[in-house]
Amino acid sequence: MAVQASLSQWRHFVWVADLKSFHAAAERAFRTQPAISLSIRQLEARLGEALFEANRKAVRLTAFGELCLPRVRDLLEFHDRTLAEIERLARRDSGRVTLAAVPSAAARLLPGIIERFAARYPSIELSLIDDTARDVQHRVMRRQVDFAFTSVWETDSRLVFRPLTSDRMGVVCRNDHALANHEGPITWDALRGQRLIDNGTTRLLSDTPGAAVVAESAHFFVSNMISLTAMVEAGLGATVLPQLAQPVGHSGLCFVSVEEPVVERRLGLMSLDGQALSPAARALYDVIAEAFDERDNDIDSSGTGDATNG
Question: What is the pTM of this model?
């Protein structure tokens, strides 16, 4: 049967052994000497062995006490170290968080927010995984990440989605493409007869006029953004993408807005319903939400722009 001794009793034992004095140990513990003596007697009674020799002139460990001392030191050190780490986690002074995000959000929206997070919580380790909206959602469902910044691939009651912003669906094409020379936004009907390259984001067009147009005009399907961009640059066709997903650093490409109707992709924070985030993950979650709240407030106060457009 395990010995039912408290940590304070073990600590009293170490202090008496180190200081070689019940009186000094009592001062360190802010207790009276009789209280420390009683604590040691109770510990010895539970162990069934004496820890200190019965000697009024000096405080000496018994052979059993000598064997116990290094082990008790290890026990107390482990306890104190573990408790300190738990307290650091609770204060968000340490920890680890894994975030999944769709590539457009990872590249266009998150860098500045992550910079703010790193400045505020320098000891928290952050891993960022970018993937398609479908695979990001699967990662959340499988608990492979703490939460995600993404769009909803498929509605699921087990998920909680907090929308933060949105961007308009449009066409990405070469600057010399016929659609690029159109004055102002185009309609979905304007895509008929054009050679299109389908990709995973066209799923967002479901139940809109654009879905049938893309289905009729798509000649290729490419899910990888690097390959998709290369094919558009090669003149193999135009593609439908959210505005934030427009390739950056490709001066030969342009984004053309599509209206009638305007189709938008909602982006936000996705997590499992009922799963409490760790303090580190909650810190990142709050920083991301805070950044978009500030952005909306800035737009509202200036009276310009649209808070929902990415």
Answer: 0.67
